[in-house]
Amino acid sequence: MTNFDYGPIEFYAIGFDGDRPGPAVLQAIDDLVAAGTVNVLDLVFVRRSPEGELEILELSDTTDDGGVPALDLAGLAGEDDILFLADNVEPGSSAAILVVELLWAKAFSSALYNAGGAVIAREAIPAPIVNAFLAENAD
After folding, report:
1. What is the pLDDT of residue 74?
2. What is the pTM of this model?
3. Phi and psi (nearest 5°) for 10?
4. What gap in Å lies between CA 22 and CA 29, rounded to an integer?
5. Which pLDDT does position 63 carry in this prediction?
6. Which domain range does residue 81 map to?
7. Strand partners, 12
8. Which domain of life is it from (predicted)?
9. What domain count does the chain have?
10. pLDDT tens-place string over residues 91-138
């Protein structure tokens, strides 16, 4: 029987107006870690100047961690991943590139694998879209 060391991972680009996210964002990430929902594997900040130049700031390059959770696999988000995810960062704004392991899905992934199954497709729908749709179609 196979037990995976890591569960599935997801990459997120979380956009913000201005040059950096506020402390509430880091607290929300920390809360997910504390609840055992996710494991933060990597976290990178990007910001695009008003002129359109992209700056990439690895968490390890910061002098003050600002309460950011410890990273399990810092550097997992490669430059190509970061550039792809940062493509939609508008001039004068920023984003956190977050790579998380879905701890809730770790045992499920092992069970699927052991049963000869595999996830062959997945589609994510952002929460604002789900909530807007449900509100619009509520009885």
Report:
1. 66
2. 0.79
3. -135, 145
4. 12
5. 45
6. 9-136
7. 98
8. Bacteria
9. 1
10. 999 999 999 999 989 989 999 999 999 888 888 888 889 999 999 998
Note the pLDDT tens digit of each residue in 8-35. Answer: 999 999 998 887 777 888 888 889 989 9
The answer as to whether 107 is a domain residue is: yes
- Asked whether residue 56 is assigned to any structural domain, the reply reads yes
- Asked whether residue 2 is domain-assigned, the answer is no
Q: Who contacts 47 (Cβ-Cβ below 8 Å, separation ≥6)?
A: 19, 20, 54, 55, 57, 89, 93, 94, 95
Bridge partners of 42, per DSSP, are: 99
Total count of residues recorded for the chain: 139
**Which residue is it, tokens 């493509």?**
87
Say if 76 falls within a structural domain: yes
